[in-house]
Structure formats: structure tokens, C-alpha cells
Amino acid sequence: MKLDREKVIVAAMALALVWYFKDLIPTWGESSVSPVVSRSAPLLSLNETVAIDNLEELIEIELPVSVALGPKDWGKDIFYDRSQIYNSWFKLTGISKMREGYKAFINGEILSEGDRIRGFTITRITSTRVTLKKNKNWLTLKLG
What we know:
Helix content: 10-25%
Order of helices and strands: HHHHEEEEEEE
Strand content: 25-35%
Number of strands: 7
Number of helices: 4
Largest sheet: 4 strands, antiparallel
Distance between the termini: 83 Å
Mean pLDDT: 75
Strand order of the largest sheet: 4-5-6-7
Structural class: alpha+beta
């Protein structure tokens, strides 16, 4: 019984493959290569030699349509660089050195390392830049 089941499965697979590749299998009496004739190109025999002056007329080129997508069209694409969007969220107006470290003036607020603004955590403040982090996104605001 087991041998019969295997034979049925192999036969079904063979039939499926023949059906899938039926266009590639030549039938009796036909050649295996069918000629492809372009209606726009002139027919030439193998013995003819023709000088082609207007090659552009014989070749048809179809260029792909350009798809221009803006930031709103990308949605939640993980590969889209959002740094320009995030940079527009913040305005760094100054950095001041205090006894306990540097303070940054961002969007009119005085912030220090560890503070949060618009979902970002300030990780480092130096004399010329502020580094912010949100999940896997890093953002550096430069003074000036």
C-alpha cells in the first residue's frame, strides 16, 4: 500500500511539471524554435546585407515611469532617512557651561543631559553640539 502511494505522488508531480512546462515542450512535426517576427522591422534573409541608416526607427525604447515620492508618501518605511524631519522639530539657540555641566537652549527650554524633549532623550551636550536619542534614531544638533 505504501509503494502505491509513492507511485501516485511521483506521477502527480510529473504531471504537474509537464503541465507547468508545456509551452517549452515541442510537439511532433514542429520545430523546437519558433521564429519571432517584429512587425515594425523589415524581414531579412541570411544572405542579404543591408545598410541601416535610421537605426532609431527600428528600435523601440520604452523608458520606465519615474515615481517621485515625498516624505509623506513613504509612511512608516524603515529605510527612509527621517533626520531632516527631526532636525526641523528642534531649534538649538545656545549652549552654556554651568558648574554641573553644559546646558542647551532648545525650542526655548533650558535642558541638560538626561532631559527629554519631543520623545528624544538628551544623551550628550558639548560646547558646540547636542546629541539626542529616540529608540534607534540618533540626532545631532549643531550650534551655529
